[in-house]
Amino acid sequence: MGTKTAAHIVWDWNGTLFHDIDAIIGATNAAFAELGLEPLTLEKYRELYCVPVPKFYERLMGRLPTEAEWEAMDDIFHRYYAEHRGACGLTVGAVELLSGWRSAGHSQSILSMYVHEELVPLVRGFGIEPHFIRVDGRTGPSGGSKAEHMVRHLASLTGVEPGRTVVIGDAADDAVAALHVGARAVLYTGGSHGRASLEAVGVPVVDTLEEAVAEAERIAA
């Protein structure tokens, strides 16, 4: 009889483990100002946000941004975000949950669409890197889906089976990426999407990371 593999969580970073929604809203509105768009409230942002990000801008502008507009807005967003992320911290309870999952004999990793060279020192700075068997940020252009990145991420993990893997994230795209590789997903309401848009995806939706981990343990059993 073969050995049953341990359950695995693939964590999203921005808006999930890292509570940076205030910096994201500020950076988005700074980018909008470049094109003369009205600033968004948190509620409106969560109602309209989607991936790929240019489609999000299309919902607000009534058209897709031109390549030059997209590049300018993307540059402003990342510059503003980099200036303000220092005021952000880990989501409440994250450290204890990461430690508890690892102590229970399970594994976990991070896959983020935040640029890899920025992500790794940020995770390391919070002292939580030892909890993860791998930390992957985005390589290549910004604004796309996480699905193909998830394929590469899981392929790089030894002894991790998609069927016992749960992706925990704050965006519908996290669930799309999970389903793309045969994994499951739990979506958290503390980040970029409101509950209504997350529930439309058809996977479990929770309001705390504690609930997310409990749900992950249940569905990966």
TrEMBL record:
Protein name according to UniProt: Phosphatase
InterPro entries given in the database record: HAD-like_hydrolase_sf, HAD-like_sf, HAD_sf, PGP-like_dom2
A GO molecular-function annotation: phosphoglycolate phosphatase activity
Biological process, per Gene Ontology: DNA repair
GO CC aspect terms: cytosol
Membrane-spanning intervals of the chain: none
